[in-house]
TrEMBL record:
GO terms for biological process: mitochondrial fission. Pfam families: MTP18. One of its GO terms (cellular component) is mitochondrion. Belongs to the MTFP1 family. PANTHER family: MITOCHONDRIAL FISSION PROCESS PROTEIN 1. Residues 1-20 are annotated as: Disordered. Transmembrane segments: none annotated. This is Mitochondrial fission process protein 1. Residues 1-16 have a biased composition (Polar residues). The gene is MTFP1.
Amino acid sequence: MIQGATIHSNTSTGDTASMADPGAKKDVDIYRDTLLRYLGYANEVGESFRALVPVSVVWGSYAVATAYCTADAIDKGRKMAKNPKVEPAEKTKKVTQAVVDTFVWQGLASVAIPGFTINRLCALSLLLLRKTTNLPLPIRKWATTAVGLSAIPVIIHPIDRSVDFLLDSTLRKWLDIQHDHGN
């Protein structure tokens, strides 16, 4: 927590009042608590379909995911700017920390690491199918897409936790950010 304000939480808005009092009204974070959250996974879907679609579609999926990450970072900066618990003298620093922490976390956990993981998994599955089966190429490509899509839910939480650990060990120490991970 930064003076009572959560910078990033991948499972909730970090509303500690709601956590302490289950009956309290929880603010909905549209970037974390609604279907909008799935835009962060657009590039994993794009990577899964790479064997079937033009590369421009894959790059477009990265643009969607990056726009989502940017919007979430801006949102967290705005929330920090409006937080009455943040001292005016610290406002710029805290807003910058919130934006940087959220953007780096989202960039790694939602775009770079899962995109690379799905890309390599799909490339490997396509290669293995080519070397070990006599399936026609279109079937191998669809099978590879299915492998990529089915891996997305499996990789999300381990990557999120790993990025939390990485940032807790590096960036958050350097920026003097204490993070509660939604606990």
